[in-house]
Design brief:
The complex is a heterodimer. By secondary structure, chain A is of the alpha/beta class. Chain A is built from 9 helices and 5 strands, in the order H-H-H-H-E-H-E-H-E-H-E-H-E-H. In chain A, strands 2-1-3-4-5 form a 5-stranded parallel sheet, with helices on both faces. In chain A, helix 1 runs antiparallel to helix 2. Chain A is elongated. In chain B, strand 16 and strand 17 form a beta hairpin. Chain B is globular. Chain B is 47% helix and 14% strand. Chain B contains 18 helices and 22 strands. Chain B has 2 domains: 447 residues, Trimethylamine methyltransferase-like (TIM Barrel, Alpha-Beta Barrel); 28 residues, no CATH class. The chains are: A alpha/beta, B alpha/beta. At the A-B interface, helix 5 of A face loops of B.
């Protein structure tokens, strides 16, 4: 790998936002292709970050800073990447379900998914089934993600899936759920495609489902 | 002359640091303010001189409103019980009380050890068990996942009234159901006036950190004021998530949130009983989970207790808390330091008994173990009496070098008053232990729970009152459906 890409990976790992942006420009000046810089420098760098996060050596705020650095380089490359979709790994509509106002878990998952290169449409908290359905119609996402903190609001996850079915668009999207009281059995029972116990696992699960 | 030993207070903040945090909160309330998602609340605060932006629902609170509110907040009150012998008077420098953690979703089955959803059938059992344990002074809600969502809080209270005569700590899902529960409590107390004089229920509500007051907490602050029900203003930013990463920053934030709660309460109902429930959390930076057993929680909460003492309000802290999935060594060690720190910080209430796994799970045997951990904490802060007779110079002289005290009258006299005696911790010989089945702490806790569940009969409600309550509940549930 060229020196500049190696340095880019190191700066990315250290969460140096301005440096990664500068290195991306420099790499372009040196004649490297946008796709090569993306794959080997930025995505390659994030793979190292992901590996060390899973090993417990990196913490969530560090991963988010690395992702910010990755995005600073990606913004430079975006206009140069051949197809518009090349930089996005998938589009996900996400929200905390109706009646539930706890959003820190959902926000964390959003940030981690964004960091991993997914496009996120965040509907916020207290999202009623109709709004999820509308968002699927308007945004044509690959997936919707629902979060709940309370057992009293968990039934709203099922109502949302029912609403998607009734609207005839359930098969257009994958559905993933999470939140403190949610279990994998509950996900199966209500007909969600998957469940993740934490933000890190959510990224892996989404990658697998959208591969 | 008899004198008691000093109360062994744990402190982190100096007086100057306490003043700095107070001043910091006043500035944050004036400049940053809080969000109040309650139309009436916004109008009310504006009328009292707060600067209100109705568009963003941001309320900036001038410092004189904070001083005015702090001047009327009471320094003591009693969590009354249906049985007055079980009252919990929360007074400055008084003994601590305790309650279980509220709102678990799962349980570990006492007989099969299976991790499973908590069901309505479990709820009665849990109330009955807690009713029998002296180290659980009052009782927080336990809900069954199979109970109807609408009115689940009201059904919880109905079950609690039938199975315990201790103070019942409510959790309300809406302002509407809260009012219905207070009316239920008034029915049991005799009247609204008698409920106010002896509030047999209490409540917890929490702003959402950072700095966000939803409609339900404003409703709760005002309804509690109207009915004279003690309220835990539960401030619980998650350090590094919904609060700053630094311990000082988290204390700064939760103190600010508490003061905003005091203002909303006291301006409407001067003298309404509030408790400073300093329950800081910490985000695990590897998983994003909110931790229950991280030692910094105890450190931050201790600083919170110091702020509560500075404001002269009773304080409630997390006591026996743990992140452990099971009844293991991690569970016991986390609970022990959390609870001792809280008791030594001068908490009036130690919260959390029975809960496991970041408060998602409640367990019978855990309640029995935590009952013991609580009673040990009560003993630790109780200290001991010092006087001529107890200093025992005369006895030491009488026994002299090389003698012993076993058969002395002095020993006989103080035998039963000086020691905390346990029926759960093993203290006999190995031979006796092996002959007795080589039980562990957990085995003995399970046995004790089983015995209580088999034998303990709670003090029932009078039959006519019980019927009246049932009628009230079915009417209340219908009114919620509309």
């Amino acid at each position: 790998m060229s020196n500049i890409l190696e340095r880019m990976q190191k700066d990315l790992y250290a969460g140096k936002v301005a440096e990664v942006e500068a290195a991306t420009r420099q790499a372009l000046d040196q004649g490297l292709g946008a796709q090569e810089i993306l794959n080997k420098g930025l995505i390659g760098g994030m793979e190292v970050v992901g590996r060390d996060f899973k090993a417990g050596d990196l913490f969530i705020p560090e991963v988010l800073m690395c992702a910010k650095a990755m995005h600073s380089g990606l913004e430079v490359l975006r206009p140069l990447l051949a197809e518009a979709g090349a930089a996005s790994m998938g589009k996900i509509v996400i929200g905390t379900v109706a009646g539930d106002l706890h959003d820190i878990g959902k926000n964390l998952v959003s940030m981690m998914l964004q960091g991993a290169g997914f496009e996120i449409i965040d509907l916020g908290a207290d999202v009623k089934p109709e709004r999820f359905v509308q968002a699927v119609r308007d945004e044509s996402p690959d997936m919707i993600g629902m979060s709940a903190m309370l057992t009293t609001t968990m039934p709203s996850m099922k109502s949302t899936i029912t609403a998607l079915k009734e609207a005839g668009i359930r098969d257009k999207v994958k559905v993933i759920i999470g939140g403190a009281p949610v279990t994998s059995k509950f996900a199966q029972d209500i007909g969600a495609d998957s469940y993740a116990p934490d933000a890190g696992a959510a990224v892996d699960t989404v990658r697998t489902l959208l591969a | 002359m008899t004198s008691k030993t000093l109360k062994p207070y744990l402190k982190y903040l100096s007086d100057v640091q306490i003043e700095e945090i107070h001043e910091g909160s006043l500035r944050l309330l004036e400049n940053t303010g809080v969000m109040v998602d309650h139309q009436e609340g916004l109008k009310f605060l504006e009328k009292h001189g707060a600067k209100v932006d109705h568009q963003t629902k941001r309320v900036r609170i001038p410092r004189q409103l904070v001083s005015q509110a702090l001047a009327t907040v009471p320094d003591r009150f009693t969590l009354a019980a249906r049985n007055p012998e079980k009252d919990c008077p929360l007074v400055p420098g008084g003994r601590p009380y305790s309650r279980n953690g509220g709102g678990a979703d799962f349980t570990i089955d006492l007989e099969t050890g299976e991790f499973r959803p908590l069901l309505q059938a479990d709820v009665k059992e849990y109330y009955r068990l807690m009713d029998a344990l002296d180290g659980i002074s009052f009782i927080a809600p336990v809900f069954g996942q199979d109970m109807p969502v609408l009115g689940r809080d009201i059904l919880m209270l109905r079950e609690a009234f039938g199975n315990t005569d201790k103070n019942i700590h409510l959790r309300a899902f809406t302002g509407e159901s809260l009012k219905l529960m207070f009316e239920m409590a008034a029915l049991v107390a005799g009247s609204k006036k008698e409920l106010k004089a002896r509030p047999i229920v209490s409540l917890l509500e929490a702003p959402i950190s950072p700095l966000k007051f939803l409609d339900v907490i404003v409703d709760a602050l005002w309804l509690c004021g109207e009915y004279g029900i003690p309220l835990d203003v539960c401030v619980m930013p998650i350090a590094g998530g919904t609060g700053p990463m630094t311990m000082a920053g988290n204390v700064q934030l939760f103190n600010t949130e508490f003061l905003a709660g005091v203002v909303i309460s006291q301006l409407a109902h001067p003298g309404a009983p509030l408790q400073y429930a300093a329950r800081p959390m910490a985000m695990d930076m590897r998983t994003g989970f909110s931790l229950a057993g991280s030692v910094e929680l105890g450190i931050m909460a201790t600083a919170g207790a110091q702020m509560a003492h500075f404001y002269h309000v009773p304080v409630s802290l997390h006591g026996p808390w743990s992140d452990s999935m099971t009844h293991d060594g991690q569970s016991v060690l986390e609970r022990m330091y959390m609870n001792l720190m809280a008791a030594l910080a001068g908490a009036n209430v130690l919260v959390g008994a029975g809960m496991m796994q970041q408060s998602l799970v409640i367990s019978h045997e855990q309640l029995v173990i935590d009952d013991e951990i609580n009673r040990i904490a009560f003993r630790v802060v109780e200290g001991f009496e010092v006087d001529e007779e107890r200093l025992a110079a005369e006895v030491i002289d009488r026994v002299g070098p090389g003698g012993n005290f076993v058969a002395d009258m002095h020993t006989y006299k103080f035998l039963r008053s000086e020691r905390y005696e346990t029926d759960l911790l093993y203290r006999n010989s190995r031979v006796a232990w092996e002959e007795g089945g080589a039980t562990t702490l957990l085995d003995r806790a399970k046995d004790k729970a089983r015995t209580i569940l088999k034998e303990h009969q709670p003090n029932p409600l009078p039959e006519d009152l019980s019927k009246e309550l049932d009628k009230f509940v079915s009417k209340a549930l219908k009114s919620l459906e509309k």
